[in-house]
Amino acid sequence: MIRLVDLQVKVGSFYLRDISLEVPSGGYALIIGPTGSGKTTLLEAIAGHAKLLGGKVFMHNDEVTGLPPERRGLGFVYQQYHLFPHLTVRNNIGYGLTGRGRQNGAGATRAEELAALLGLTPLLDRPVRGLSGGEQQRVALARALAPKPSILLLDEPFAAVDPATRQVLRRELRQLHEREGITTLQVTHDFDEALRLGDLVAVLSEGRIAQSGTPEQVFRYPNSAFVARFVGSGNVIAGIVQRNDSGEREAPFRARFQGENLSLDVVAEREGPAHAVIRPEDIVLSLSPHPDSARNHKEAVVVRLERLGPVTLVHLDVGRPLIASVTTASADEMALHPGLRVIIALKATAILLV
Amino acid sequence: MDLRWSRIMLAGLGACLVLFVVGPLLRLLLESSPRHLAEAVRDPELRASIALTIFTATVATLLAALLGIPLAYLLARRSFPGRRIVQGIIDLPVVIPHPVAGIALLLFLGRRSTVGGILSQMGLEFVSHVPGIVAAMLFVSAPILVSGAREAFRGVDPQLERVARTLGDTAWGAFRRVTLPLARRGILAGSVLAWARSVSEFGSIVILTYNPKVASIFIFDRFTAFGLPAAVPAAVILLLVALAVFLLVRVLQPEEPT
Question: Which residues in chain A touch residue B163, judged by CB atoms under 8 angstroms apart?
Answer without folding.
Answer: 76, 78, 82, 84, 143
